Amino acid sequence: MVQRPIIKAVVKTFKYFFGLRFEVKGLENFKVEGxxxxxxxxxxxxxxxxxxxxxxxxxxxxxxxxxxxxGSVGLIMYLGGVIFINRKSTSSAKMVMSEVAKTMVxxxxxxxxxxxxxxxxxxDLLPFKKxxxxxxxxxxxxxxxxxxxxxxxxxxxxxxxxxxxxxKVEVLPPIETKGLTSDDVTDLSDRCFSTxxxxxxxxxxxxxxxxxxx
Length: 214
Ligand SMILES: CCCCCCCCCCCCCCC(=O)SCCNC(=O)CCNC(=O)[C@H](O)C(C)(C)COP(=O)(O)OP(=O)(O)OC[C@H]1O[C@@H](n2cnc3c(N)ncnc32)[C@H](O)[C@@H]1OP(=O)(O)O
Ligand SMILES: CCCCCCCC/C=C\CCCCCCCC(=O)OC[C@@H](O)COP(=O)(O)O
What we know:
The strands form two sheets. A seven-stranded mixed β-sheet has the order 1-9-6-2-5-3-4, sandwiched between helices. Strands 7-8 form a two-stranded antiparallel ribbon. 37% of the residues lie in helices and 19% in strands. The longest helix has 20 residues, at 185-204. The relative contact order is 0.19. The protein has one domain (3-203): Glycerol-3-phosphate (1)-acyltransferase. The protein is built from six helices and nine strands; from the N terminus they run αββαβαβαβαββββα. Bound molecules: ligand LOTZAFKI and [(2R)-2-oxidanyl-3-phosphonooxy-propyl] (Z)-octadec-9-enoate. Ligand LOTZAFKI binds next to α1, β3, α3, α4 and α5. Keywords: Acyltransferase, Lipid biosynthesis, Lipid metabolism, Membrane, Phospholipid biosynthesis, Phospholipid metabolism, Transferase, Transmembrane, Transmembrane helix. Converts 1-acyl-sn-glycerol-3-phosphate (lysophosphatidic acid or LPA) into 1,2-diacyl-sn-glycerol-3-phosphate (phosphatidic acid or PA) by incorporating an acyl moiety at the sn-2 position of the glycerol backbone. One of its GO terms (molecular function) is 1-acylglycerol-3-phosphate O-acyltransferase activity.
């Protein structure tokens, strides 16, 4: 898909306009052979810049179906291969995800999912939805967590705070799912949640947590 690198290159440039800097660690963790499910925290539309900053080749994202109707932006997402799901219908979303489990393996594609299922700019994580973990277990592919530090020091839509800022990004080591079954989904989700929350607090200098000094 020739359009994906073009979308990535264009969206990446938006950071200069918004005064955002990214400091990325762990990109080598994306170098797993074959498909994988990538998970990340989701704070705001600003995440689209963070997504493009690290997006590996051959990777599509899962998005809510309402985004498809956002005019030309929806069309660009469609052309970029975004998989649209209906969050209001668990059965329809599950059906789409099980198709994705088959095609990602057949076509060697990585799938990026926001397991919180919605934007959340509180400086913490929302409880994870299960879809991404069922997907990884059904496809028997690793899960790769990616964590972005909290935006709260420079971005808060409620108080209309929006200044320039630095976002720390860490791509964590892959977590294998080979041999896991649907009975293991809750454990897998809990494990990813704890690891990602710990990393979020470390990267953001959350009170009571060791602040990342780099
Ligand atoms: C110039 C401009 C250019 C712009 C270009 C930019 C391009 C980039 C675009 C990027 C798009 C980004 C979009 C971001 C979003 O839209 S985030 C919102 C959408 N994403 C999600 O919602 C993903 C996370 N959600 C899930 O995974 C959910 O689980 C979901 C599948 C949607 C189902 O929702 P829900 O029912 O609310 O979830 P639960 O997790 O509570 O599940 C209920 C029970 O069902 C079981 N379950 C879930 N999934 C499966 C499955 N696949 N197979 C089997 N069973 C499943 C789950 O275990 C629950 O049952 P139990 O309680 O465990 O018994
Ligand atoms: C003041 C902020 C202005 C920010 C503009 C930043 C520009 C960023 C680059 C890309 C252009 C727009 C792409 C739009 C994609 C929107 C993805 C998104 O964030 O969808 C929200 C969805 O996940 C969850 O929705 P809800 O939180 O449940 O509703």
